[in-house]
Amino acid sequence: MEVNGDGAGNSTRPRKVFDEDNSAVEIPETAHQISSDSWFQVGFVLTTGINSAYVLGYSGTIMVPLGWIPGVVGLIIATAISLYANSLIAELHEFGGRRHIRYRDLAGFIYGRKAYSLTWGLQYVNLFMINTGYIILAGSALKAVYVLFSDDHVMKLPYFIAISGFVCALFAMSIPHLSALRLWLGVSTVFSLIYIVVAFVLSVKDGIEAPARDYSIPGTTRSKIFTTIGASANLVFAFNTGMLPEIQATIKQPVVSNMMKSLYFQFSAGVLPMYAVTFIGYWAYGSSTSSYLLSSVNGPVWVKALANISAFLQTVIALHIFASPMYEYLDTKYGIIGSPFSIRNLSFRVGVRGGYLTINTLVAALLPFLGDFMSLTGAISTFPLTFILANHMYLKAKKNKLTSLQKLWHWFNVYFFGLMSIAAAVSALRLIAVDSKTYHVFADL
């Protein structure tokens, strides 16, 4: 249900309410709309998150370091374990007589106040880095269009990042909450299909015309170890948002079964395009695959321009999903409810969301090689949030209903992904140390 004010834009505070379909389940106060979206719409929210323009780089960041067999098997396994971990969190959405609409609420309810604060910190650092990465991605797509038509190098990447940040801010001001995306999710899907189809078709053309490719894993034995660890981490980063309870909060009752439908939709229809462009890109270019596939393909200029413009626009929409938990926190804290386009509420979004994205944009322009730092952030936040916490919270919540074998399985996951998190963090730190010798602030990559 939606928690509204008086409908006139007055700054009334959100109220704690009880679910209309289950009066025993308490819903925490929130200024955003909840319990209103179909599982189909939520499925598109999840799919938009994993089928962003980042998929154009998975050939280079996953397949090149791993090779054919480990890369293909790894993606399939990552799909399965990500679906499993997300289903654990989804099942805990209504637990203990409360509906946990934020990840930190769930962790705090199970572990206590310290876990609430720690989860909050990990989640929002993760989402801040993702948002910043999206602005870099959008700026890179704009620059790719520019260089197709001009080689004067007057416009640098930081300029395109600034333009991207401004467009993202305009979009954030016009979309009050996550549920309001609606039609934009369909638009995002169209944009995704455009750049994925273009990348797929042009890569097939290049692959057919190209001589024999080298599929060997590049680098020394030592560097291969670290790149393999990093690629293994990228496998699971690709499927996970770190904000599943916030997305599940928007879905209609019954929230658990509907969320499971959304997850199955994401991991069936959603991953197929990602697999297609990842595998075909590696097949076409081998170990020389670019980290950003559309910069490698050969084809008509207007086709590549269309694909890059689509990538830019889809990135603007996708960023809004990952920024929505911060927007919800700020809107709830300051009582921004009622008409989303009242003068007070609109001016608040302009100032606060605009300020937040300005910081994102500044960091993106300052550190356009942020991918190295995002790998570190993912290692210390995405792994704990998505896999370690998911399994341990499920153990704590369901301990009296689990068999000894089930408990052993969840403890195995906790320790395994704990070790993976440490290994991925070490690999990311090494990557930062190596690349810091090459990159500089406000670099034109």
Protein model, in words:
The chain crosses the membrane at residues 38-57, 64-85, 124-145, 157-175, 181-204, 263-285, 305-330, 350-370, 376-394, 414-433. Residues 1-15 have low confidence and may be disordered. The chain has 445 residues and is mainly α. A hairpin with a 7-residue loop joins strand 1 and strand 2. The protein has helices at residues 39-50, 58-66, 68-91, 103-111, 113-149, 157-174, 183-209, 221-237, 244-248, 255-285, 301-333, 343-366, 371-398, 404-435, and strands at residues 17-18, 26-27, 94-95, 98-99. The protein is globular. It has one domain (17-435): Hydantoin permease, CATH 1.10.4160.10. Helix 3 (68-91) crosses helix 13 (371-398), helix 5 (113-149) runs antiparallel to helix 11 (301-333) and helix 13 packs antiparallel against helix 14. The longest helix has 37 residues, at 113-149. It starts with 16 loop residues before the first strand and ends in a 10-residue tail after the last helix.
**Uncertain spans:** 1-15
CATH topology: Hydantoin permease
How many structural domains can be distinguished in the coordinates? 1
- Please work out how many helical segments DSSP would assign: 14
Alpha-carbon distance between the two ends: 46 Å
Helix content: 55-70%
Series of secondary-structure elements, N-terminal to C-terminal = EEHHHEEHHHHHHHHHHH
The major beta sheet can be summarized as:
2 strands, antiparallel
| Strand line-up in the sheet with most strands | 1-2
What is the name of the CATH class? Answer: Mainly Alpha
Mean pLDDT: 86
CATH architectural label: Orthogonal Bundle
**Secondary-structure class:** mainly alpha
Overall spatial form: globular
Strand content: under 5%
Rg, alpha carbons:
22 Å
CATH H-level superfamily: Hydantoin permease
- Per DSSP E runs of 2 or more residues, the count of β-strands stands at 4
